[in-house]
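=== RUN LOG ===
request id: a7f3
mode: sequence -> structure
chains: 1
length: 212
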Amino acid sequence: MSTTKKIIIADDHVIFREGLKQVIDTTVDMTVAAEAGTGQELLQKVQENDYDLVILDISMPGRNGLDTLTELKRIRPKLPVLVLSMHPEEQYALRAFKSGASGYLTKGNPTSELIDALQKLALGKKYVSADLAEFMVAGLGEPAASEIQHSLSNREYQVLCMIASGKPVGKIAAELSLSVKTISTYRSHILRKLGMHNNSELTRFAIENNLV
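=== RESULT ===
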C-alpha cells in the first residue's frame, strides 16, 4: 500500500488555499497536512514537522517566495517544491528553478495539470510545462535575459516586474510590506545594474524581454 504524501501549502490567500485543499483531497495518495500564510510561517513549520511536498506562492507579504524557497532548500534540500504563482512562467520560472524549485505552474492552469505536477514531484521528478520548455529553448543565448537572471537579486527582479507593470512605488511598498524608501533603494539598484535612468527604460526593457 502506498503512503499518503503530506503537502504543505504556502499562500497568503485563504480562499485559494481552501480551493487547493479541495482539489488535492480528491486524489488518492495526497493530503494537505498544513498551511502557511507567509514565508516565515512556512519555514517554521517545515523545521518543526516533516512534509513530502510544498506548494509555494511567489507573492507573499514580507519575505518573498523566491527568498523563502532559497532558505527552504537550505533547511530541507531534498524537499520538493512546486511554485504555483499568478505570474507568467516567462517572468519567474527560471528564477524559481535556479532557487531550487522542482516545478512551476501558473494559477490559471487546469487542476488536472496541478495534480500531474504534484504526482511527478512525489516521484522525485521535475515538472516543466510544454509552454515553459518552449520558452526556455527560445531564450537560449539571449544576453539580455541572461543579464537579468544573474545581475539582479530576487527582490530586485520582483520590484522590476512590478514597476514595469505600472505600479507606483507606494503600492509596491504596500504589497511587499516594505517601506517606500526601501522600494526606492531597490529601484536605484536596478537602474544602476541595468545601466538605465528611469521607469520608462525599465518598462521598455521588461516588455522586450517578456517580463510583463
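=== NOTES ===
The domain at 5-136 is CATH 3.40.50.2300 (Rossmann fold).
Strands lie at 5-10, 30-36, 53-56, 81-85, 103-106.
=== END ===
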